Amino acid sequence: MCGIAGFFGIALPEAEAALRLRAMLAGVAHRGPDQHGTCVAPGLGLAVARLAVVEPAAGRQPMVDETGRWALAFNGEVYNHVELRRDLESVGRQFRTRSDTEVLLAALAHWGTDALDRLEGPYALIFADRRDHKVLMARDRFGERPLHYVRQGDGVVAASEIKSLFAWPGIERQLDGAAIQRVSQLWVNLPGETCFQGIAAVPPGHRVEWTPGRFGLVASAAQTSRHGLAIGAAEAAQQVRAALTASIHVRASRCDAPLGVYLSGGLDSTIVAAVAASQRTRLPSFSVAFEDEGFDETDYQDEVARRFGLDHHRVRVSQADISAAFPQAILHAETVQFRSAAAPMLLLSRQVAAAGVKAVVSGEGADEIFLGYDMFKETMFRGRLSELNDDEALAELRALHPYLAHLGAGAGASMLAFYRSFATEKIPGLFSHEVRFAAGGAAQRLFSQRIGADQGPQALAAWLRRRYPEMAELEGLRQAQLVEFETLLAGYLLTSQGDRMMAAHGVEGRCPFLDSAVVDLGWQLPDHLCLAADGTEKAVLKDAFAGLIPDRIRERRKQPYRAPDAVCFLSAVAADWVADLLAPSSLKQCPVIDPVFAERYVQKLRATLPHGIAPRDDQMFMVLLSALLLQHMFVDDYAPPVPVPEDSLAVNLRLGAWRDG
């Protein structure tokens, strides 16, 4: 985990370029507390805040090859750097260090953009060829590491985080109301968008190829959609166990810094913990516990920690803690949130850092690959509704949502009627997610200039058709997986709730389920091996690790990680800043929000609070609150970062103009 920043195609005096880079470096310094460095050349500048996880004594960045032609700023890990090093040595490349950064530099110099297809692991990078006046920006297949940019004339300013871009003179700080509304509809930014005008993101699996006068955004790696592997349940379980075990071993062993594991108490993190613990004695584990019992999984976490001899750490989180931490969560997420769940993860990463651990392995990606979410079951149910009478449909619905049995017959009938209204596809390619997106459309009332309740889904569908020309030919669950990978996983779980909260305290996340071999195997498995006929989710994964993990964990129904939302900010435990931010005068300062409606809406929620707040209102309130915080912290009360002192730089390179020979 590192923070990177840079510019290219912009002519500046050397001293001015160096000063701007050190200011941008301050904006990402939290991501890499171990070493800071800059490299300045005519029309080019790179800066890196490094978290030293592989080869701490070497691997300093920015890194330039011995000829001075190629320069690299890199955030991420190349897990297969040992194998790539052998390949490069076989064609005559020589290495000075054991670092994966040097391997990446040599790979890009030797193979060009084809090197990206060889990389295993998360990355965001800026790579410059000074001789040929070319620059490459690229981001990994799944979007595990962020990369943002602003075009300035023919040039580009880029950084891991938006706050670093705002350190560059002349870049405006203004919310993008249309983009924020799309977040309220989709739960995440549309790929390539941010919540700020003029600031773009490199989408997952894309690269930017730049030369003077040319800027090209290219899709360099797509999720595969291959299916139909002829395989039985036993062999599938064996292959899944082998692929995932190998992935966990690599991520646990190729780490030269203290490593831990995030432990939720669910299936995925338990598998990761069990395998990783076989390599590391007294592996540190870290969990969130909630004072609200409905969200707490402490009992399961404790069982796993005992079973595998983990050195377990826990942060106990109250509603007041969430209220107090949420502004910092928004400061690091840099986007609108539909939940409060990032705040406990911010508190957890703080505890990880305090324990001296620099990297954690976790279970992200398992639900998307092996059909773990209820949304996949709902997609199949809605697709069959036209074949079912009401009695049959109600029976299936109650099996899908057992809590309906406690709410009376009317609740089931009402939900069935709701699902029947979504029994046919409205937007091509989005059938699986139309219920989710319709709920988000209600938030349009918050905004001063409304874009239309289906504008976000329509824009997403168009983006997906360009990304996956075969999208229309795929059946429902295949489409659902692709949409989930490109939206909630890439845009929220790996970023707002993952990378950003970890990086806030200089912690690196490692996701074994997102190994290419694991994902590609999962894509090819028949649906019934993942989502069994009896409704068992992730069936092949549960079979694969039977006997290793506790049966109680393996057999429990999935409990998604959630945290209390609006109640944290509307009840008596709310921090002082909440009342100030929701005051009428503050609402009027945010140009993307309709202050009259927002004031009435908050009053309504406060009156509703004793009786409980509906999930749709929870989501809508969090969108409002986080938009107001973005306006407050990044626009109204923004303080530019103080440049990192030059004498603190471990790398301080000054390169002259390139000359052949």
From TrEMBL:
Site (Important for beta-aspartyl-AMP intermediate formation): give the residues: E364
What are the record keywords, sorted? Answer: Amino-acid biosynthesis, Asparagine biosynthesis, ATP-binding, Glutamine amidotransferase, Nucleotide-binding
**Residues given in the record as L-glutamine binding sites:** D100
InterPro entries on file: Asn_synth_AEB (IPR006426), Asn_synthase (IPR001962), ASN_synthetase/amidase (IPR051786), AsnB_N (IPR033738), GATase_2_dom (IPR017932), Ntn_hydrolases_N (IPR029055), Rossmann-like_a/b/a_fold (IPR014729)
Q: Which Pfam families match?
A: Asn_synthase, GATase_7
Q: Which SUPFAM superfamilies match?
A: Adenine nucleotide alpha hydrolases-like, N-terminal nucleophile aminohydrolases (Ntn hydrolases)
The catalytic activity, as recorded, is: L-aspartate + L-glutamine + ATP + H2O = L-asparagine + L-glutamate + AMP + diphosphate + H(+)
CDD domains in UniProt: Asn_synthase_B_C (cd01991), AsnB (cd00712)
Name a single GO biological process.
asparagine biosynthetic process
Its Gene Ontology cellular component terms are:
cytosol
Q: Which GO terms describe its molecular function?
A: asparagine synthase (glutamine-hydrolyzing) activity; ATP binding
Question: Where do the Glutamine amidotransferase type-2 domain residues begin and end?
Answer: 2-213
What EC number(s) is this enzyme filed under?
Answer: 6.3.5.4
Q: Which residues bind ATP?
A: V288, S362, G363
Family of this protein: Belongs to the asparagine synthetase family.
Name the NCBIfam families on file.
Answer: asn_synth_AEB
Q: What is this protein called?
A: asparagine synthase (glutamine-hydrolyzing)
